[in-house]
Amino acid sequence: MVLVLAGVLGLAVGSFLNVVVHRVPRDESLLRPRSHCPACAAPIRHRHNVPVVGWLVLGGRCADCRTRVSVRYPLVELGTALLFVAITARFGVTWALPAYLYLAAIAVPLALIDLDVQRLPNRIVLPSYLVGAVLLLGAAALGSDHAAAIRAILAMTVLYGGYWLLAFAYPGGMGFGDVKLAGLLGLYLGWLGWSSVWVGTFTAFLLGGTVGVVLLATRRATGKTPIPFGPSMLAGGLLAVFAAAPLANWYASVVYPAG
User: Fold this and answer.
1) I need a surface site. Which of 8, 109, 208, 259 has the fewest CB within 10 A?
2) 217 φ, ψ (degrees, to nearest 5)
3) Using CA atoms, how far apart are residues 248 and 256, in angstroms rounded to an integer?
4) Which residues contact 49 (CB under 8 A, 6 or more apart)?
């Protein structure tokens, strides 16, 4: 029942995240005007605003002007729901659950906005430091896990500093949006443990490097094409949340093969 509730909540949050992805890069209000068709500006009727179902009922088109509505809208809603279910299954009903649900919620728009406009908006990242700190340090205090709180702060500082040095040394390859996101991910991964920090960081660079090689090999990018790194950072962080131990063992087996 808890997982079902998590999925329903994820669908609702995903519907709102579609608004975030569309409006934040344009510096528009998230509250006004109400949701509307980008093509004809007709307000979306409440019965058509039901996550996933509304898009399916309308056949992926606006109810008024019949302009095609991107399939990304229901995919964001469904993907957020699946993330919420997975996070809830991972943590259970614990004090840490709200913190990691929040991480999943911001990961979706940050990844999509970075892919769309090559930005990780301060409007999302900076307030998330406060929200993450309150939720995680509160969970550590309520669970009497002071070591997790200290580790989270240290990891946040280490990752922020490390990425800052990379951005300073190689400004063409690393943006300061990535630096700010690194500190936030350090906070979350540090709460889980140092292995999660290292696995999340290494996986981010592994994914980012792989994407870059594939784009270059298929000639969809050149050496001067900016390639967003935020999605790789977020994917690496989420993978570490779910599977830090097996990933760490696998990386170790590759680097130090037995025999």
Assistant:
1) 259
2) -65, -35
3) 12
4) 15, 35
